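Appendix B: complex inputs.
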Amino acid sequence: MSETDRRPAPSDQPASPGPEPVADILGGRSRQAAGISVMRQAALVPVIILLIIVGSFVNSAFFTVSNMTGIGEQVSSLGVVVVGESLILLIGGMDLSLEGTYGLAPMVAAWLIVPVTAYGSGLLLSPYLAILVLLLVGAVIGTVNGLLIVKGRLNGFIVTLGMTVVLAGLQLGIVGGNSVFNLPPAFTYLGSGTIGTVPVSLIVAALIFIVVGLFLRYHRTGRAIYAVGGSLEAARAAGIKVDRIRIGVYVAGSVLAAVGGLMEAGRVSAVTGQQGYQEGIIFSVFAAAVIGGVSLKGGRGNMVGAASGVVLLGLVQNILDLSQVSNYWIEAVTGGVILVALILARVIGGEAAAE
Amino acid sequence: MTTTDPSAALTASPVVEAVGVHKRFGSTRALRGIDLALQPGRCLGLVGRNGAGKSTLVSILSGIYPADAGEVRLYGAPAPPLADVDAWRGKLATVYQHSMVVPTLTVAENVFLGHQPRRGGVVDWRGMREQARQVMLDWGFSIDVRQTCASLTVEQRQVVEIARALAAGTRCLLLDEPTAALERDAVQRLFVRVRQLVASGVAVLYISHHLEEVFEICQDVAVIRDGELVLTAPTAQVSKEQLVTAMVGAPRGSDTAEPALAVPARAADAARLALAEAPPCLVVDRVSAQAARGSLREVSLQVRPGERVGVTGLLSAGVATLARVVAGADRWQSGQVLLDGQRLTPGRRDLALRAGMGYIPEDRQAEGFVKLLSVAENTTMTITDWLARRLGWLSPRSRAAAARPLARRLSIVSAGLGQPVGELSGGNQQKVTVARAIVRRPKLIVAITPTRGVDVASKSLLLAELAEITAESGAGLLLATDELSDLVICDRVIVLVRGEQFTEFTNPPFDREALISATEGLRSGDGSSGDSRPAGPAAAEGQEPA
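Resulting structure:
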């Protein structure tokens, strides 16, 4: 924020020289704490390994490069939304409408690109401008949610539930319930392009996880997010601009959901009316975040956990696809497996996990 | 009482007994071989510094934690397994400092929470109300059992909790710092109730930081230090000095009686007093504010650099409101607050902080720290803008470097700067809150009841530290408190009555009696030591006692 009032850090306070027993204990303690937190973060690794073994038995095509990159491509759009939802969960909020944004933002962008005959607006906007609009749509939705929840003091659950339905309605409304195909390569590159054999979407999603993870750990605003989620009142009393951070996080979450939507549209080379709300992706988003140890109560969780939650979910989905479970049963099985994964995460991660 | 008296047959034997109880938390030995017995019809005071093991002992006696070694005996028999909630019910009840009533339910529902009287399988509402009323009547409590607990005062909620325990037939009460949130009058009424309970044969364990309370109502006293009972004696046979010595450990100098009263008379104090001629750093100009916990009406005051100004009054007098308004934590409706000549925006804590306002909030559990975050992070939460490098990136190392000198200076006892503050004892949590306020080198420190729930030794350390910081840095101090012993470090004390400035004491040391009568809205007839003078036009009103 303001750099003008920068003053010398108060490290020149009277410090008694001499032996420093505190430091010893500190070293031991922080190493131990770091050990525990790494263990917590890595809690899902055994489960993921187990899944890979199971998958290899189920189908020999499972543990192949092409299948693995396929999983990567499939989960990256979900992963980007999970990053957004995790940020919102960390400040102690929740946003159900991310699935609406995930569908509507790419739909608006696609609608601006394609001609009227393909159910577009006829504006024939450049795909680059359209992507800008897509980000803007995300930002506007996030701002509205944030203002209603933070300034309007409305309940986040009900606001974003209502918003979900509004967004899904708009998504169908502007194209009369049709799907938009024939999208320009610039628009689908993020979702379907590859660098070598690696999908662009996977690289971008991984970068987003890393950047947001570092931001949360080493940036003052990232730390303020943990403070706000841990205790709103304490953060306020410490002079943190609580409202600004909360609204900002809602905006960031929605923009990330829009980016995730763009990836998905690129992957399937179309924007359908079903994308987002009617697919019900919000359940997977919450499941991945919570399995990954992001607390629904706020203030607890990190990107390593969230990423492993996403990977776990992707593996389960893929194994079920390969094991040829009947289409009618696949949802029941997926839901059951997610519940089991939640229980496992709780058992392995201890008290704090999965709450 | 309609309930049977299970202790009648065994009057001489203890109701609750801890035999050689050990408890470990990780590497910390919280309790080491505690032997403690509660006798029917006696009140045992349990005192000790923060972190000595009082809370752990209470948790074990009330069946929240198992003991690692040793056993708890109830009415002469081994205590039931922890999971068997029903077996514990009616045997013993704990009343905590923080209220455990459900605010949305009625008094009657709270009294019978979890085991409402039934009739044909459904809750017998009329019967429940009747029985609750009967309990209140039996024990001389006067609370309408039909109102919801949200509308009750802190004192009344405590009564509801005691009534809940009694309704279950409990003959043993553990009171964990019951007076921490009560006003003086309410404390006296609580004492009357406790005496009444003890007289009827109930065994009471009374935990408090206030030694004078222990002397007032306890027959016996036990001192716990570092997980061991170091002294158990009838209250009549020990002196306050002996208790303090036992609590602190090593024999101490002359300041044993009331350590908090030892005002730090340091060389820096001379420099501080020289600042008294400087223009005020804080000007509060006819501020009026509406607040649930006490409104303000046209309050004006000034604090000069280095000056320590106390504000006190009854709970509803607006003392905390004034401090919150000044700190930027609450809005105000009219008037203005200036810090170093700069006008502050109502209710903007972030702007107040940047203008140089340090803030030690009243409710440290809610506002003082983020319990999941580390000591270092909480301590430096107010200065992340100073610590951050380009683009706001912040290294944990610079945080630790900034926090370490303060942690050492305030002797914050933790397993390291990386330990979450939620795991520290109450006194150390409060030190973190203080560190967070002073780390930014404020021009003015606003502190609300900074020593509440803090043990005697930490209390004097905190007060001395606040005094020293103001002396060193020339920061002003606005100390809002209802604990009169906090006021020893103040140069002036302003007394609020019903949101208005009632009088001001300008000559320390302040006379306790005069202060108390002033908070009640009574004019003391020319106080012996405290030079009391009426303050402004507001003095005409508020004459009648509250």
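Chain A has 14 helices and two strands.
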